[in-house]
Every structure is written in C-alpha cells, then in structure tokens.
C-alpha cells in the first residue's frame, strides 16, 4: 500500500498575525520526506504509531497523543510498524509560534485524548472556501482543535495511572524522562512526583528505572543479543551506563551474568529450566520490595518459569543514585 494523502491548503488570505496554513488526513507506510518548516504544526495520531525525531531525541507517537513541531523545526518522522494514520494541522504567520506558546504548548510529545475528527472535517470545509469570513471561521475551528488537545476527553483515569501506563509502553524510548512526562501530561514535575509517590510509594523515575532494569535482565537471560542491543531496547543510549546499572543490581557485569545463566539456561530452554546455581542472589522467590502499599501496582518481577527476579534494597540505592540523571 502506498502512502495516502488527503489535505486542504488555505487560500492566500494572510492579513492576520497567524492563520491556518492547511490540514490533512494521512495514512503512511513509508517515511515522509524530511523538511525544515517555517510554520507550526501538530500531528494527531488516530491509528498505528509513528516515530518522530526532534533535537536529537526520538519519540513514539501513539493514538490519543499529538506531536508538536514549533516554527523553524527540522521535521522528520516515519511509521513505526505497518502503518501510521494521523491528522495534521499547520498554523503560519509571524506570530504562529507565539499562539502555541500562549496556549501552553511545548515542543514534542503531548497526551491529548481522542482525535476530534469532526472538528478536522469542519476545518476542511471552511478551508475549501477562500472568502475571508470562512478563513476566519477556519481559524476559530483550529483554535478549538488546539484547546481540545490541552483538555483531553474520554480518559477520566487519574493522571498518575496514565503516566505509569505510558512508561510501561515506552520504557524503551530514551527520550522518556521526568520533564518530558510532566510536559506530555500537562502537570508540573513537582506535582507529578508527589502524586505518583502518594499512589505507588516510589517516584516516576524510580519506577521507570526499575522497569528498564527488569527488562534488561530478562533479555540478558533469554536472548543472545549483544549488551549494546539490549541497552538500546531498554532505553539506554550508553551500553556502559546500562552495564553499570546491571552491576549495581546483580553484583555482576552483563556478560558475567550470562555466563552464569546460559550454561544451564540456553535461550531455547530458558522458560523451562531450573534456576542455575550461583544466581540465588539475583533470582529468588520473594515479593517486590518496591511495590509500596498500592495493591494495583504491577509487580516488578521477571518470571523465569516459577522463579522470579526481584529488586532488593540495593536496587533502591541504585535508583536513588540514578534519579538525578533523568
């Protein structure tokens, strides 16, 4: 399937400080051409997912989220898997960036709720008419779209539950950190830390770090991927830093851990073999001591058949030490 592009561009009525440049509905399977845009633009995911790049960071855009490129950005994005279905809206003019700033938009990924496709369709109808009155109506609808993204509908769950789910799904993205989470969910980082701590007994970054370490140990013990490949899959740009985290958790470097596990645990038997001797300090049956008091918090455990990898008090020291790195 080729990329499907449906779009409407505005007529050349540009007597305001900002105006709707255009809007469209795209379904793509191939990367879009990279471009430097002088206008502001948002991308609202409907189905599938896309990978966006901005200022050297990589972001994953999924349904109920938008990505904002401010004026002057180098736009670069592509479908993540089979396809990426999204709507876009671009605002041009000398004060386009100021409009987004005044609304509270920050560049990058934002949580936004369901895409208001009815508003996008109304916007298209207005843009098809080049009369001044309809151009101003188009600007009014665009303003509705932009404000609806800041007050998402259809998701009444507490924000900390949404943040936790986001981290569970995007731990592999190195761009996920406390400031990004606060901006994406429209909450101050101090408030986010406080509410998350109250709900789950640990901070958001402690939770994220524990998920990444858990996944790293699982991949080390069940695949033959390189340490660098596993580090990247767990959200670490540096294999050395990933190795440091694994060492502080297990007392072993990744390759040493593998040598202890793989003689009795080849990848083909990892789910049925017994726990190898010498790994009792890492693999043991116990409750997760990071779970806090909330019974809804998913256990940070790695299942190897009936045995579990869990995190000791050393993990808490490791996570506390690393928290300043995010």
Query: Do you know the CATH architecture of the largest domain?
Result: Orthogonal Bundle
Structural class call reads alpha+beta
Helix content: 25-40%
Q: Distance between termini?
A: 40 Å
Number of helices: 11
CATH class of the largest domain: Mainly Alpha
Could you state the CATH homologous superfamily of the largest domain? Homeodomain-like
Give a short account of the largest sheet. Answer: 8 strands, antiparallel
For this structure, the CATH topology of the largest domain is Arc Repressor Mutant, subunit A
Number of domains: 2
User: Uncertain spans, ≥5 residues at pLDDT below 50?
Assistant: 267-326
> Helix and strand string, N-terminal first?
EEEEEEEHEHHHHHHHHHEEH
Number of strands: 10
Global geometry: elongated
Percent of residues in β-strands: 15-25%
Write down the Rg. 23 Å
Mean pLDDT across every amino acid position:
79
Present the secondary structure layout.
Elements: E1 4-9, E2 19-28, E3 35-36, E4 40-54, E5 57-61, E6 65-69, E7 74-92, H1 96-103, E8 108-111, H2 117-127, H3 132-150, H4 159-170, H5 178-184, H6 189-200, H7 204-222, H8 227-233, H9 239-250, H10 254-261, E9 302-304, E10 307-309, H11 313-322
Antiparallel strand pairs: 1-2, 2-7, 3-7, 4-5, 4-6, 4-7, 6-8, 9-10
What would you say this structure looks like, in words?
- The chain is of the alpha+beta class and 326 residues long.
- It has helices spanning 96-103, 117-127, 132-150, 159-170, 178-184, 189-200, 204-222, 227-233, 239-250, 254-261, 313-322; strands at residues 4-9, 19-28, 35-36, 40-54, 57-61, 65-69, 74-92, 108-111, 302-304, 307-309.
- Helices cover 38% and strands 22% of the residues.
- The model is unreliable at 267-326 (pLDDT under 50).
- The strands form 2 sheets. Strands 1, 2, 3, 4, 5, 6, 7 and 8 form an 8-stranded antiparallel β-sheet that branches. Strands 9-10 form a two-stranded antiparallel sheet.
- Strand 9 and strand 10 (307-309) form a beta hairpin.
- It folds into 2 domains: 4-150, Regulatory protein AraC (Jelly Rolls, Sandwich); 159-325, Homeodomain-like (Arc Repressor Mutant, subunit A, Orthogonal Bundle), CATH 1.10.10.60.
């Amino acid at each position: 399937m080729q990329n499907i592009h449906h779009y409407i561009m505005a007529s050349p009525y540009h007597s305001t400080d900002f105006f709707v440049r255009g809007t469209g509905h795209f379904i793509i399977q191939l990367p879009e051409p990279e471009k430097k845009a002088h206008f502001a633009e948002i991308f609202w995911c409907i189905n599938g997912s896309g990978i966006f790049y901005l200022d050297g960071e990589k972001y994953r855009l999924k349904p109920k989220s938008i990505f904002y490129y401010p004026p002057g950005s180098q736009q670069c994005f592509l479908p993540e898997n089979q396809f990426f279905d999204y709507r876009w809206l671009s605002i041009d003019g000398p004060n386009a960036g100021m409009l987004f700033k005044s609304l509270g938009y920050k560049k990058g990924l934002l949580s936004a709720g369901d895409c208001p496709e009815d508003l996008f369709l109304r916007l298209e109808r207005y843009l098809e008419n080049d009369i001044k009155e309809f151009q101003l109506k188009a600007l009014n609808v665009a303003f509705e779209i932009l404000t609806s993204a800041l007050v998402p509908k259809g998701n009444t769950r507490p924000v900390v539950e949404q943040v936790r789910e986001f981290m569970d799904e995007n731990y592999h993205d190195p761009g996920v950190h406390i400031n990004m989470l606060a901006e994406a969910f429209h909450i101050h980082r101090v408030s986010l830390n406080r509410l998350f701590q109250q709900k789950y007994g640990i901070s958001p970054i402690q939770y994220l770090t524990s998920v990444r370490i858990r996944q790293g140990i699982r991949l080390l013990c069940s695949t033959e991927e390189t340490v660098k490949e596993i580090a990247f899959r767990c959200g670490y740009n540096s294999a050395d830093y990933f190795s440091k985290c694994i060492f502080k958790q297990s007392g072993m470097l990744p390759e040493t851990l593998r040598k202890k596990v793989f003689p009795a645990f080849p990848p083909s038997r990892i789910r049925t073999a017994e726990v190898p001797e010498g790994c009792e300090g890492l693999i043991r049956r116990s409750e997760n001591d990071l779970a806090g008091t909330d019974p809804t918090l998913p256990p940070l455990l790695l299942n190897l058949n009936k045995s579990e990898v869990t995190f000791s008090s050393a993990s808490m020291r490791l996570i506390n030490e690393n928290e300043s790195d995010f």
